[in-house]
């Protein structure tokens, strides 16, 4: 679903602006409680060129599509996401394990997970993903708990979001 929303946003904002390209800066974060696997699954989607610019501003000149050293690229991606995205679940700070990233079309998908049992009652995000690079950066946040799905939007400079179930 988040993938469909992400593509719809790209399609509508880039193609229907009186024939002109209009830059729009958006990231998508999805947190899903996978009860069957006893995991919280976190996915961050960022435009590849914007993400590479952010990594460059943090001191890493990395081509994410064709990195010279995949391990170094993954370490920098992990560091950046952990630096710019804080998550609390049910009132407690959590630390996700980095699984890796992949390029899908013009976006980077970053995958993380955390062992978890129980239900999501409250999720807190503090996100500054790509904020330094784009004053107009927006973030769309999806939290999935069972059949319930809550979605919210943050726009730079706002960085704090709380979703309750």
How much strand content do the residues show? 35-45%
Q: Nearest-angstrom radius of gyration? A: 16 Å
Largest sheet: 6 strands, mixed
The tally of structural domains comes to 1
Distance between the termini: 19 Å
Structural class: alpha+beta
Give the CA-based shape.
globular
Widest sheet, order of strands: 5-6-2-1-8-9
Per DSSP E runs of 2 or more residues, the count of β-strands stands at 10
| Individual helix count | 3
Mean pLDDT: 89
Instruction: Determine the fraction of residues in helical runs and give it as a percent range.
Output: 10-25%
Q: Which series of helices and strands comes N to C?
A: HEEHHEEEEEEEE
Report low-confidence residues grouped into runs of 5 or more. 4-22
Folded structure, characterized:
- This protein is of the alpha+beta class and 165 residues long.
- It has one domain.
- Helix content is 24%, strand content 42%.
- It contains three helices and ten strands, in the order H-E-E-H-H-E-E-E-E-E-E-E-E.
- The strands form two sheets. A six-stranded mixed β-sheet has the order 5-6-2-1-8-9. A four-stranded antiparallel β-sheet has the order 4-3-7-10.
- A hairpin with a 2-residue loop joins strand 5 and strand 6 (107-115).
């Amino acid at each position: 679903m988040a993938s469909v929303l992400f593509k719809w946003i790209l399609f509508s904002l880039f193609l229907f602006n009186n024939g002109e390209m209009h830059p729009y800066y958006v990231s998508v974060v999805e947190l899903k409680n996978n009860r069957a696997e006893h995991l919280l699954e976190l996915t961050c989607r960022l435009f590849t060129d914007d993400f590479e610019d952010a990594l460059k501003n943090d001191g890493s000149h990395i081509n994410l599509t064709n990195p010279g050293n995949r391990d170094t690229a993954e370490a920098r991606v992990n560091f950046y996401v952990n630096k710019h995205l804080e998550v609390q679940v049910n009132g407690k700070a959590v630390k996700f394990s980095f699984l890796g990233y992949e390029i899908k079309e013009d976006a980077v998908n970053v995958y993380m997970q955390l062992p978890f049992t129980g239900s999501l009652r409250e999720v807190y995000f503090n996100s500054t993903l790509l904020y330094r690079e784009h004053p107009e950066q927006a973030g769309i946040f999806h939290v999935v708990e069972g059949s319930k799905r809550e979605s919210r939007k943050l726009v730079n400079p706002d960085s704090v979001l709380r979703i309750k179930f």
